[in-house]
Design brief:
about 200 residues, mainly alpha, Arp2/3 complex 21 kDa subunit ARPC3, about 5% strand, globular
């Protein structure tokens, strides 16, 4: 899901930077000190998971974990994903520095959206935790693929076909992410449910 350099238009790149800066600022403000260890673990998980990727056209297909990150950290997903993407761009040339803003928004914005949609519902409907967590993980990757496709389309109509294929090729990832999110959230509810308590608005 990393968009490579030299593909997106200037306005799309600038818009990505602007949104990423605002999201990261909000995330840092809302990220409590006691959440720093969790943020570090989730950043490392995102970093490792997205290293195993399959190149596809202007981007790549890989696990993201943004639904899980969003449920636990809310707006904190922005700085967590940004740090991981910076390290990947510098160490492994995944994505790139010019596309850093867009790539951050593509993966972090759905995480925040899923936080607001699913976090409180999970706390209320604990009996349906696994089901809702699956939908959250699935939806996060779906939204990310749609944002990625939109970024390509707004950069040029010639990317329309690639954008469509990018969404379709992420369908298996959506399903896998759904199961992983369901497993992780179910496990956390059993061993340490306090991690899932709402802390930001």
């Amino acid at each position: 899901m990393h968009i490579s350099e030299g593909i997106l238009s200037g306005p799309v790149l600038l818009s990505g930077v602007a949104i990423a800066v605002v999201g990261t600022a909000i995330g840092l403000k809302k990220l409590d000190y006691d959440r720093i260890p969790q943020a570090g673990i989730l950043a490392a998980s995102f970093f490792i998971a997205s290293l195993v990727h399959l190149p596809f056209g202007a981007g790549s297909v890989h696990l993201v974990f943004n639904g899980l990150i969003g449920l636990i950290l809310g707006w904190g997903a922005f700085p967590v994903i940004l740090v991981a993407l910076i390290l990947q761009a510098i160490l492994f040339q995944f994505g790139g520095l010019t596309t850093l803003g867009v790539n951050t928004v593509v993966m972090a914005m759905p995480a925040v959206m899923c936080y607001y949609v699913f976090q409180r519902v999970l706390n209320i409907n604990k009996a349906k935790t696994s089901y809702l967590a699956f939908i959250c993980g699935f939806s996060a990757v779906l939204l990310s693929s749609l944002l990625m496709a939109s970024s390509l389309i707004f950069s040029g109509e010639e990317f329309l076909q690639i954008a469509s294929l990018a969404v379709i090729t992420h369908l298996p990832v959506m399903i896998v992410e759904g199961f992983i999110t369901a497993f992780c959230i179910g496990f956390l509810y059993k061993v340490q449910p306090s991690i899932l308590h709402s802390y930001s608005t």
